[in-house]
What does this fold into?
Amino acid sequence: MTRRIVCLVLLAALLPGCGYNKIQAGDETVKAAWAEVANQYQRRADLIPNLVNTVKGAADFEKGTLEAVITARSKATSVKLTPELLENEDSFNRFVEAQGQLSSALSRLFAVAENYPTLKASDSFRDLQAQIEGTENRITVARGRYIDTVREFNTLVRSFPTVLTAKAIGMGPKPTFEAREGVSEVPPEVKF
It folds into this structure.
């Protein structure tokens, strides 16, 4: 009986140092930061159909450029934006690549639009262009917050003694955004 009490007291004394609650809180913080990134990407995806319809009205606008934007949007929105995406690095990388391709297609669309003064003068095109530029900036901020949150979480689950708890509960480092070769994550330049 005394041995059991000593074990329980020891266990109770060690429990706060195991980091379980910190790991759970960190995981929730990463998921919240990811939700903000996903929200901004979704906002951009929601604006694109209006932009495409506005651009379609411009006579002789390059169909290949529009098709590239439509295809890139379709590919980018085909990946389900769930917290589970953070647990599968391959899915995460496919998502990042698809979003990068969409950013590149939008950049090309805005560059080609420079050759169409009537389109550039359109209020709806200018408004949509400004909204997409603002969304690109929000994406950059949200990604920065996500990267910081993941850095803190990954440090927690790799540090002693919480690494022991993390391994015991199957919690590992989360993937983060990295510069991708050949994929531009530069927001489209907006010129009037």
Q: What stands out?
A: Residues 20-56 form the longest helix (37 residues). The domain at 19-168 is CATH 1.20.1440.20 (de novo design (two linked rop proteins)). Helices lie at 2-14, 20-56, 63-78, 89-113, 117-121, 123-158, 162-168.
